[in-house]
Amino acid sequence: MRIVFMGTPDFAVPSLEALLQSDDTVVGVVTQPDRPKGRGQTLTPSPIKVSAQQHGIPILQPEKMKDPVFLDALRAWQPDLIAVTAFGRILPKVILELPPRGCVNVHGSLLPKYRGAAPIQWAIINGERETGITTMLMDEGMDTGAMLLQERVPITPEETAGSLADTLAPVGGALLAETIRQLKAGLLVPQPQDHAKATMAPILKKEDGLIDWRLPATVIANRVRGLSPWPGAYTYAGQDRWLLWRTSATDLSSNHAPPGTIVAVRTNALLAATGDRLLAITEFQPANSRRMTAMQFLAGHAPPVGTRLSSPAPGASPA
User: Fold this and answer.
1) At a CB cut-off of 8 Å and minimum separation 6, what does 92 contact?
2) Are 280 and 269 in contact (CB under 8 A)?
3) Taking all residues of the chain, what is their mean pLDDT, rounded to a whole number?
4) C-alpha–C-alpha distance, residues 116 and 19, integer Å
5) pLDDT tens figures, 119-154
6) 123 — phi, psi (to 5°)?
7) How far apart are CA 157 and CA 261, in angstroms?
8) How many other CB atoms are there within 10 angstroms of residue 123's CB atom?
């Protein structure tokens, strides 16, 4: 088949690579326009654009999905099927109806759970022990199309959104290739989703990283994992903002200490009170400093016992 691939971030690269290793032909790639990145705000191509350039594949980068010039170029590729992984744009009806074999999406959850832009992050934030990849036929809804194949993947207690994405990405690529193989062979019967069981995974914003110390320790630890590496979990020590990178719930009671209070220090952790038990902060990034372990922090600072971590700092903006 003639396939057009649509994708943008690193997560989508294994999907493109799987298609390039298949019997089908990737006739073109659609990805988001180059965006400013870093302190210098240098225009940077997406990982998918870089991969496509390495393989000599034609590329389109539309600002608007209904741009007539873009649509004409897409039609000229004459795709039999469009494959989509983490593209980051809603496909309008005119594109969904273009390829005879439809549009197949690779989604990072076990649909109908976690429809939306951040399924991997929300699965960890909500304390799930299992997630996976779903391939589906796309329709005009938000991840509402009929399902084709699923593969389950466990979530380990130490998993972050970043590490889980790295695990799921090649699973998605392999499942996409298998989905297309079975579609061509007539082996797949699309299964409608049970919309009554659907849950949402909306896009995350920077302010979602602000920690509420009144929550239980396990809830906070899951949130820190789910927000790593972006947008990042954070709190305030006085006027200084701390980014929290690694934490874990302990079995130790907070003993009625005000939530957010650092009540004790261990060799490798700061112990902070929460809504129930103590939270061990093992890796964080103080304001105007580098990311460091608690042990590294304690080597150059006095033990911060009694410091009240707040959300937000008095007089500070939570953004």
Assistant:
1) 65, 66
2) yes
3) 96
4) 24
5) 999 999 999 999 999 999 999 999 999 999 999 999
6) -60, -40
7) 25
8) 29
- Does pTM top 0.85 for this prediction? yes
Query: Are residues 191 and 197 in contact, defined by beta-carbon separation less than 8 angstroms?
Result: no
Q: Tell me the C-alpha distance between 16 and 52, whole Å.
A: 8
Backbone angles phi, psi at 14, to 5 degrees: -60, -30
Structure tokens at 245: 């990178």
Q: Tokens 């109806």 label which residue?
A: 97
Q: Which long-range contacts (CB under 8 A, 24 or more apart) does 164-169 make?
A: 164/120, 164/123, 164/124, 164/131, 165/10, 165/11, 165/108, 165/120, 168/11, 168/108, 168/120, 168/131, 168/132, 168/133, 169/10, 169/11, 169/12, 169/13, 169/14, 169/15
Q: What type of residue sits at position 104?
A: V
Q: What is the pLDDT of residues 206-221, one digit of tens each?
A: 999 999 999 999 999 9
Residue 65 main-chain phi, psi, to 5 deg: -75, -15
Q: Which residues make Cβ contacts (< 8 Å) with residue 117, sequence separation at least 6?
A: 88, 201, 202, 203
68 phi-psi bin (left φ>0, alpha ψ -120 to 50, beta other)? alpha
How long a stretch of residues is the chain? 319
Residue 267 phi/psi, 5-degree rounding, is -55, -40
Q: What domains lie within the chain, and their CATH numbers?
A: 2-197 (3.40.50.170), 206-310 (3.10.25.10)
